Amino acid sequence: MPTRAPRICSCGKVVASGAACPCQAKRAAERKAAFDKKRGTASQRGLGADWRKVRDAHIARFPNCWCGAPAVDVDHIVPRRIAPERRLDPSNLQSLCKKHHSGAKQREERRLYGKAQQ
């Protein structure tokens, strides 16, 4: 069975194909920490106790995504950055599975509303 040749990382180390070099993992962790520090807490972003209460009630009432898979995310149909006043509005919420919340929904939002400002 053929295997791919190892590659050379930017730090100069030889790394097996498909594996991450430890230096890259460290850089990724540093980038994530900087991003998380800049974006604020869940409460600061409008996802505090009031949101969790509405979210839990919505999941209890609508436990499945439209595709039939168990819902893991409650999504705002009109994004919070477009209509912040509808943040807790039950008519602006939909239950989605991870696949549909992470992929299709986010692409659709970018198409309709543009990329979010950081």
UniProtKB/TrEMBL annotation:
It holds the Pfam family HNH. Residues 53-102 form the HNH nuclease domain. Keywords: Endonuclease, Hydrolase, Nuclease. GO terms for molecular function: endonuclease activity; nucleic acid binding; zinc ion binding. It comes from the Bacteria. InterPro entries: HNH, HNH_nuc. Residues 91-118 are annotated as: Disordered. Coiled coil: none annotated. This is HNH endonuclease. It comes from Paracoccus yeei.
